[in-house]
Design brief:
The protein has 395 residues and is mainly alpha-helical. It is built from 17 helices and no strands. It has helices at residues 18-37, 45-68, 77-104, 123-133, 135-140, 144-155, 167-172, 174-182, 185-191, 194-214, 238-259, 275-292, 303-320, 323-333, 346-355, 359-365, 380-394. Helix 2 (45-68) crosses helix 8 and helix 6 (144-155) runs antiparallel to helix 8 (174-182). The radius of gyration is 22 Å and the shape is globular. It starts with 17 loop residues before the first helix and ends with a helix.
């Protein structure tokens, strides 16, 4: 969806689309709002209903964008390097940092540190790493979305999967990533039509009403996609039904969300490139509030208090996406790590730049909304094969 006024990334010289940067920023704001509402929602049915609606689409929207920008991902060295430095390394760093934070600030010195059980919000990095690695498989299938939805439905009825690497979430959120892989710019143009914008208003209003109605009737854990049906105390067949139903509802609300995302450049467009920072860092503030009792004030558990908390969360995550914060934490969120990777000479490096360097777009993809913005090129092995064929022809 190239826009005529989309800014160029200063790092790669490629044109960035303001629409997607705006969508990423607004989605990360909703993530932060949902996290601050979590310890408050028990005191207000209205607040919990709004919480359910936000959780129905904020991560699906984020994951759809991630899949959209992963369409050209393959196993070339340059892209694998970006996958390691932009996803795997931050996962290791923050999967260690959060338990240490709980030990020190939360007063739990015996809390375990493990890389196999994603803690709090690090599950998304684990999931994104696995989704990206399997992208070539989904690109090769004739009907990838029905297959991915079938996998998610089967996972929801399989408690044997366990909690390692949060595989339940990885598999149950998989259809949204695969959907992003299947989307094209024309699909985003469809949701930008005036008729869709108008229709989204009553749809969102109806969703809020249903969310309020469902508070005493539906387990909020269904929105997290981290448990099988049997673990939620219902029959196995309820899991596949709920996954399919929530997939449809989430897509409708995600379309409504995209319909109202500005396409033009706004004051927060540049912040869309730093959503990974806001995502990973805001968790420390939220958890500090839980450990230190910031959410214990009774007035915060009312609708007005929830609105104030949402405004503070939006302001806080906006600050964490700014340039100064990104410069300070770039060494752990987007490390270069050239020392850790083999250099195969100028020709191989040129091949990676031509076909595998994700550049700025892929960096933003590790925040959940970027992908492989590399230009097409020929891999070094392919060039060698061409040279051998030419020499054979001459002989």
């Amino acid at each position: 969806m190239p826009g005529p006024r989309a800014p160029r990334s200063p790092q790669s010289g490629k044109q960035r689309d303001a629409f997607f940067d705006n969508a990423k920023f607004l989605a990360i704001v909703l993530v932060a709002v949902g996290h601050v509402w979590d310890p408050l929602k028990g005191g207000s049915r209205t607040l919990e209903g709004a919480y359910n609606v936000v959780y129905a689409f904020h991560m699906p929207a984020f994951i759809v964008i991630s899949g959209y920008f992963s369409r050209s991902f393959d196993l070339r060295p340059g892209r694998l390097k970006r996958l390691v430095t932009g996803v795997a390394v931050p996962y290791v760093v923050f999967e260690t940092a959060y338990p240490v934070f709980k030990r020190v600030v939360g007063g739990d010195p015996g809390y375990d540190i493990t890389l196999l059980d994603p803690w709090y919000l690090t599950w998304f990095l684990c999931a994104l790493f696995l989704w990206r690695l399997t992208t070539p498989v989904w690109q090769a299938l004739r009907r990838p979305l029905p297959v991915a939805l079938g996998v998610a439905m089967a996972a929801s009825a399989s408690p044997e999967i366990g909690d390692d690497l949060d595989l339940q979430r990885v598999l149950q959120f998989l259809p949204y990533f695969v959907l992003g892989l299947c989307l094209r710019p024309a699909h985003f143009h469809l949701v930008r039509r005036r008729s869709v914008r108008i229709a989204s208003v009553p749809v969102l209003a109806g969703a809020l009403a249903v969310g309020w109605w469902a508070v005493p009737r539906m387990d909020t854990a269904w929105f997290y996609h981290r448990d099988a049906a049997q673990e939620l105390g219902v029959a196995w067949w309820v899991g596949p039904v709920m996954v399919a139903a929530m997939f449809g509802c989430s897509l409708v609300l995600t379309a409504c969300f995209f319909a109202w995302v500005p396409r033009r450049r706004t004051w927060f467009t540049a912040l869309g490139a730093g959503t990974l920072y806001g995502y990973l860092l805001h968790g420390f503030v939220v958890k500090a509030g839980v450990y230190l009792g910031w959410f214990d004030h009774a007035w915060l558990h009312r609708p007005l208090g929830g609105a104030v908390a949402a405004a503070l969360a939006a302001a806080g995550v906006t600050l964490l996406c700014t340039g100064p914060v990104r410069r300070v934490f770039r060494c752990v969120v987007e490390p270069r790590m050239d020392w850790a990777f083999r250099q195969d000479g100028p020709r191989a490096a040129q091949g990676d730049r031509a076909g595998g360097s994700g550049g700025s777009a892929e960096k933003s993809g590790s925040s959940g909304a970027g992908g492989d913005g590399g230009r097409s090129g020929t891999a070094p092995g392919e060039r060698r094969d061409d040279r051998v064929r030419r020499e054979t022809t001459r002989v």
